[in-house]
Specification:
With 257 residues, this protein is an alpha/beta fold. The protein is built from nine helices and nine strands. It has a seven-stranded parallel sheet with strand order 3-2-1-4-5-6-9, sandwiched between helices. A two-stranded parallel sheet has the order 7-8. The radius of gyration is 18 Å and the shape is globular. The structure holds nicotinamide-adenine-dinucleotide.
């Protein structure tokens, strides 16, 4: 059997779907998640339960920022690839909980990089975010990977951009291949209850008015979860040359799968 793939954030929305698809194609998967209470942990437990009954899957309950434990896990698992999706998401949550972003996104990403380089991981695919592009007027031109990413409008965006920079430095210093994916808002089954489409639906079902910010004039790209998973696996299977990183928007990632 091929060596396993480590999927961090495997009890999360995207992580569960990525792990499921890897299992479907016969890969062994080691999931890592801390099951935090950012949103109802029962949803995370239910996602994990879907995976835990399957051959080739094992879940490790661990904070990725625990760098010594993380390093031991990556080394001992025999994995050759890592899909790193664990993170503190959300924009408004950072107003009251800024250090959750420091721990999961900054310390967590660095811990993953260290673990990967010591274990000789052949490809690290990690989640970045469309939020790195900042606010931009709609001009119908879409986004490009080389668009400016210097004006984050949230702490979340700043930490995601920082992860990309940490990755670039590690690719230069230690030469292991990495791919960063800038997902645009992802939706689909088993989705996140903190996201607008979820709360809109909940309110509509209850017959309550929905809460709309910004005079209802905001627009946003959404990507269906299956397209994101196609993109993640397509990228995972095609590492960049050693010592290089690449950044890919979710639209591009799903096309390349
Ligand atoms: N869903 C989207 O629309 C979207 C858009 C852009 C980027 N992303 C990124 O994609 C990735 C996955 O997002 P998601 O929507 O599945 O989010 P999610 O919150 O459902 O999943 C993230 C998982 O990571 C776990 N986690 C958080 N901190 C951890 C830590 N320190 N140690 C171990 N586990 C930890 C959480 O418990 C959670 O289960 C994240 O990196 C997120 O920033 C998501």
């Amino acid at each position: 059997m091929a060596r396993p793939v480590i999927v961090t954030g495997a009890a999360g929305f995207i992580g569960m779907h990525v792990a499921e698809r890897l299992l479907n194609r016969g890969e062994a998967v080691v999931g890592v998640d801390v099951f935090n209470a950012y949103y109802d942990p029962r949803l995370k437990e239910a996602r994990a339960a879907r995976l835990e009954g399957r051959d080739g899957f094992r879940m490790v309950r661990l904070d990725i920022a625990e760098h010594e434990a993380m390093r031991a896990l990556v080394a001992d698992s025999g994995a050759d690839r890592v899909v790193h999706l664990a993170a503190q998401a959300g924009v408004r949550y950072s107003i009251d909980n800024p250090f959750a972003y420091e721990r999961s996104n900054l310390a967590g990403h660095l811990s993953i990089l260290e673990a990967c380089r010591h274990a000789g991981i052949e490809h690290l695919v990690y989640a970045s975010s469309s939020s790195v592009y900042g606010d931009r007027p709609l001009d119908g031109q879409g986004f490009r990977e080389d668009d400016p990413t210097v004006s984050p409008v949230s702490l979340y965006a700043a930490t995601k951009r920082s992860c990309e920079l940490l990755s670039q430095s590690y690719a230069r210093l230690y030469g292991f291949p990495q791919s960063g994916l800038r997902f645009f808002t992802v939706y689909g089954p088993w989705g996140r209850p903190d996201m607008a489409y979820y709360s809109f639906t909940r309110r509509i079902v209850r017959g309550e008015p929905i809460e709309v910010y910004g005079e209802g004039r905001m627009a946003r790209d959404f990507t269906y979860i299956d397209d994101i998973v196609d993109g993640v696996l397509g990228v995972l299977d095609h590492p960049p040359a050693e010592g290089r990183t690449r950044s890919t928007t979710s639209a591009t990632a799903s096309r390349s799968a």
